[in-house]
Amino acid sequence: MNYPGFATQPPRPVVAYQSKSMQIVVVGAGGTGSWLVGHLARLVWDFNRTWEHVHGEEPRRASLLIVDHDYVEESNIRARQNFCPAEIGYPKAQLLANRFAFAFGLNEDEIAAHVGPFSPSLLSRRWNELTILVGCVDSALGRQEMANCLMSPAGTRRERPPLLWWIDGGNALHSGQVLCGNTATVDELCGALAGPLCLRLPAPSLVHPELLLPQPEEEAEAAQRLSCKELVLMAERTMQQSRTVNNHMASLLYGYVEMLIYGGLTTFASYTDSSSFTTRSLETTPEGLSQALGYPPQFFTTVESSEAQNREDEWDDEDEA
After folding, report:
1. Where does 21-320 sit in CATH, by number?
2. Where are the domains of the chain?
3. Quick one: pLDDT band at residue 155, thresholds 50, 70, 90?
4. Chain-centroid distance, C-alpha 105
5. Rounded to whole angstroms, how far apart are CA atoms 92 and 195?
6. Do residues 269 and 177 make contact, with C-beta atoms less than 8 angstroms apart?
7. What predicted TM-score, i.e. pTM, was given to this entire model?
8. Is residue 102 within 8 Å of 112, Cβ to Cβ?
């Protein structure tokens, strides 16, 4: 437990919908994303071949899509992104897809690239497919597009837990955060922890709305924005980015993805500082959600038992259909 004496009950295990197919979409292949992709390619390789050779039932399949509009520059390599000099001038997303397709023997249905900006239209949107959207961008605009993927049509409220999860990572010079959720409004979180399992968590944009607000340098077209790459290369020693923070963030992001898929996740927000080697997390308890969102703990545990049972029965009927 991360806050001794604070939580009044153990955290609820987070459960994602176990569909026959799963799509992981990494948005951003720069400082953090370029290191994360290798972990996720290995996960896809292992996931697909484990179900194919070990389990007797119909195999489950995973796929990885890498999205980035940028091309490799020398400055990316000096900034310790996961590229080498021979790759200068080539698109980051396609390079990573090619590299790990060759390394793990993945086919085009298992790993692919989109050289361009992210938009919700890139998601397959299959009604019965688990989708994990992993954000590794450093701009408010990119996060706005990902946040839009979780929004329900105006005036509607989803009764079934969303099949789309958004795991977002962001960092500064030495510190960073990882946020995990699938629900865009606080109203939909009422009673989310009423049962023994946690099926809904707040979207990263609910926990930290400021992530969707452009910084002054983003709003001014003529102003030069400091990206992760540029922070690393700045001459002033006091402003240099940690040499290990991007690798550290990639490991944290991968941990969230893996635990969401295989089970064991009991946190929804983690904050880390590579200079002091410390990481703290908010757990999936009423108190944890209360601290993140400002609502009383009872809000997340109060729901009529009959209503909860009716919802579960409806989901089971839809699955059988």
Report:
1. 3.40.50.720
2. 21-320
3. very low
4. 25
5. 43
6. yes
7. 0.86
8. no
